[in-house]
Design goal:
Layout lengths: L2 E7 L6 E10 L3 E6 L10 H8 L2 E6 L18 H14 L6 E5 L1 H11 L5 E5 L7 H20 L2 H8 L2 H8 L11 H13 L3 H8 L13 E6 L8 H9 L4 E5 L6 H4 L1 H18 L3
Parallel strand pairs: 3-4, 3-5, 5-6, 6-7, 7-8
Antiparallel strand pairs: 1-2, 2-4
Helix pairs in contact: 1-11, 2-3, 4-7, 5-6, 5-7
Length: 284
């Protein structure tokens, strides 16, 4: 069941209150799950139950996405605001330094949380921020086209398309390698989430100059890339490995940009293995 929590964040405008939606289940060490731009926490549903067998899993709608409120007026959507805000969210939920797994924008945020000491391990699935300028322009143009398509579709047509494999491929084939595996209800919900995301344009604008260039030392980091990622091409994983040399770079065969649905068992294993390696590093 989705709940909401409000908490204070630091911003260039001074302290402000943010409110986000989240789902929480399981027991064990905390594990924070972060979705990509235009998506929502339900992106993690294919793996949540597997992860919750070992962890206290907290999946969140990022500010301005899903059913979370946008950031307060005038507060920027940059890394240096949103990543600390996620740390404040964790504190509000009674969690200190969770394991963090993120996809795309969420992967970039997960790495930033690791870099700034807010995470005990990081799993980044096709993280943003390792692109060339040409690759960034291609990804942003694709995202904008997806957003425009979602906004142009009347709800009855969207629902009809979602009930056929070809329709689901047309709606979500850019981000999934196996879009037919998505249920009609899931496809409708994520298309509406993309259409209605209040933080989309501001997040995209903030990301225009983002390059992740720092190491993330002192904690386990896994960077995983789908071999069929059509949005952030998998060669960016090699750059990520050069940037974070201590990271484990993992191929996700047959997976697209949002791999949790394409191969739930593999993605869950990658996340769990990363979290377990943090326990091995911690002295008794």
């Amino acid at each position: 069941m989705t709940a909401t929590v409000s908490f204070t964040i630091d911003s260039p405008l001074g302290p402000r209150t943010a409110t986000v939606a989240y789902e929480r289940k399981g027991a064990g060490e905390p594990l924070l799950l972060l979705h990509g731009i235009g998506h929502h926490l339900q992106a993690w549903h294919p793996v949540t139950d597997i992860l919750a067998a070992e962890h206290d899993v907290i999946a969140v709608d990022l500010p301005g996405f899903g059913v979370s409120e946008p950031l307060p007026e005038g507060v920027p959507y940059g890394l240096d605001t949103v990543a600390p805000a996620l740390g404040a969210l964790c504190a509000a939920l009674g969690v200190e330094r969770p394991h963090v797994a993120g996809n795309s924008l969420g992967g970039l945020l997960a790495l930033e949380m690791g870099r700034t000491g807010l995470a005990r391990s990081v799993t980044a699935l096709s993280p943003a921020g390792f692109w060339t300028e040409g690759e960034r322009r291609y990804a942003f143009a694709t995202l904008l086209a997806m957003r425009a398509g979602a906004r142009a579709l009347p709800r009855p047509l969207l629902e009809r398309l979602s009930h056929t494999p070809a329709g689901r491929a047309a709606l979500t084939g850019t981000i999934y390698a196996r879009p037919a595996r998505r249920s009609p209800d899931a496809v409708v919900a994520e298309t509406l989430a993309l259409r209605d995301a209040t933080g989309f344009e501001k997040t995209l604008a903030a990301g225009g100059s983002v390059r992740f260039t720092a190491d993330v030392p002192g904690l386990p980091v896994t960077i995983a890339w789908g071999t069929r990622d059509r949005l952030l091409l998998r060669r960016q994983g090699v750059r990520a490995k050069h940037t974070v040399p201590g990271a484990r770079l993992v191929r996700l065969p047959g997976c697209g940009h949002v791999p949790m649905s394409d191969d739930p068992a593999l993605v869950a294993r990658v996340v769990l293995d990363t979290a377990r390696s943090a326990a091995i590093r911690t002295p008794a």
